[in-house]
Design brief:
mainly beta; OB fold (Dihydrolipoamide Acetyltransferase, E2P); five-stranded mixed β-barrel; 45% strand; globular
């Protein structure tokens, strides 16, 4: 049996998009930007953003759709979905013929890290996540 978990912390690049499967299960798609910086071989600091497409399911999907919005900070713990053909990121071609790749996660846990004061909408970001963690409790995360 193989098991893996991916943990990312970042900000939503757009508002969540919720839909329902034909069987009636809620699924919410999140676009999460993770900022990264490193020093290259020339000693220069390089900043980059890595984008993840995240899918949350069931009650967690509904909660994410209700309380998150563009700019919300989240911690996502989940499983990486790989391209069946390559075993890597999902590869696709745009309408203009450009090749693109995307990292996709199926969320097991989504923790809301933005506080209510960081939100422009009343109550946004103020609900506990599936695991009961309230927004703003990120100082308890052990890393």
């Amino acid at each position: 049996m193989t098991f893996h978990t991916v943990i990312i912390t970042g900000n939503l690049g757009r508002d969540p998009e919720m839909r329902y499967t034909p069987s009636g299960q809620a699924v919410t798609n999140l676009s999460v930007a993770v900022n990264d910086d490193y020093t290259n071989n020339n000693g220069e600091r390089v900043k980059r953003t890595i984008w993840f497409r995240v899918s949350a399911w069931g009650k967690q999907a509904e909660t994410c759709n209700q309380y998150l919005k563009k700019g919300s900070k989240v911690l996502v713990e989940g499983r990486l979905n790989v391209d069946q053909a390559t075993g890597g990121p999902r590869i696709w071609t745009t309408q203009d013929g450009q090749s693109r790749a995307s990292f996709e996660l199926s969320a097991q846990t989504v923790r809301f890290l933005s506080s209510r004061t960081e939100s422009s909408e009343p109550g946004a970001g103020g609900a506990p996540a599936e695991d009961g963690m309230m927004p703003g409790e990120e100082e308890n995360i052990p890393f």
